[in-house]
């Protein structure tokens, strides 16, 4: 199994969107950068914030596209092509309407579920066969309310559930970086328990 060489967090740039459900991918990549003592810096050729990080003995690129969600693929393909990173070596972290807040799933390929970020990445890469870390945010219950729902901050209990699953994701990150995606999926989907990690204020 190929090792993960690029972790992409999806979101929208700017303070207006920073705390919204749609920016869940940014939140986790921010945490990874802190863990690695790496600085995400704007790189024009990659259309986003990027950093080379050393995590659990592996070198990995971290990327937060600054193109707005529906053009995320422009940023991802720019960095992937520059460093010759294959789709199977890319992990995209994103919010997922079809999973309740407090749950997280890992998979490779499949559909985009109407997620504009995934849709654009798939179009630019020419394949859906990249990895996705799907962070549950729940569903408003009405399709007409989805656009407004994802661009609002999560409720307190939802946010706490999302932080809990990020702890689980941190726990299995060494497996993902080593290419043991089967082991990572088994651990994540079994609901690995971890000691509490301080939550953001």
From TrEMBL:
Which biological process annotations from GO are given for this protein? protein quality control for misfolded or incompletely synthesized proteins; rescue of stalled ribosome
Which residues are involved in binding tRNA? 17, 68, 70, 116
Report the catalytic activity.
Answer: an N-acyl-L-alpha-aminoacyl-tRNA + H2O = an N-acyl-L-amino acid + a tRNA + H(+)
What coarse category fits the chief subcellular location reported for this protein? Answer: cytoplasm
Q: Record's Gene3D superfamilies?
A: Peptidyl-tRNA hydrolase
Hey, where's the site called Stabilizes the basic form of H active site to accept a proton on this chain?
95
For the keyword Ribonucleoprotein, the answer is: no
Provide the alphabetized UniProt keywords: Cytoplasm, Hydrolase, RNA-binding, tRNA-binding
Subcellular locations according to the entry: Cytoplasm
Q: Which GO terms describe its molecular function?
A: peptidyl-tRNA hydrolase activity; tRNA binding
Query: Any keyword RNA-binding?
Result: yes
- UniProt name for this protein: Peptidyl-tRNA hydrolase
């Amino acid at each position: 199994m190929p090792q993960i060489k690029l972790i992409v967090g999806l979101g929208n740039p700017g303070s207006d969107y920073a705390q919204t459900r749609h920016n869940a991918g940014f939140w986790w990549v921010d945490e990874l950068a802190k863990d690695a003592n790496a600085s995400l810096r704007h790189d024009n050729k990659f259309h986003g914030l990027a950093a080379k990080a050393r995590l659990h003995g592996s070198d990995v690129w971290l990327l937060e596209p600054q193109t707005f969600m529906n053009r995320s693929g422009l940023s991802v393909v720019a960095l992937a092509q520059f460093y010759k990173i294959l789709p199977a070596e890319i992990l995209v972290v994103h919010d997922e309407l079809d999973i309740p807040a407090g749950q997280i799933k890992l998979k490779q390929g499949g559909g985009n579920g109407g997620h504009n970020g995934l849709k654009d990445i798939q179009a630019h890469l020419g394949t859906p066969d990249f990895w996705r870390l799907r962070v549950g945010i729940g569903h408003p219950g009405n399709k007409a309310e989805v656009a407004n729902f994802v661009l609002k901050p999560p409720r307190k209990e939802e946010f706490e559930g999302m932080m809990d699953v990020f702890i689980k994701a941190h726990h299995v990150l060494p497996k993902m970086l080593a290419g043991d995606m089967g082991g990572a999926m088994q651990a994540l989907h079994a609901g690995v328990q971890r000691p509490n990690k301080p939550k953001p204020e």
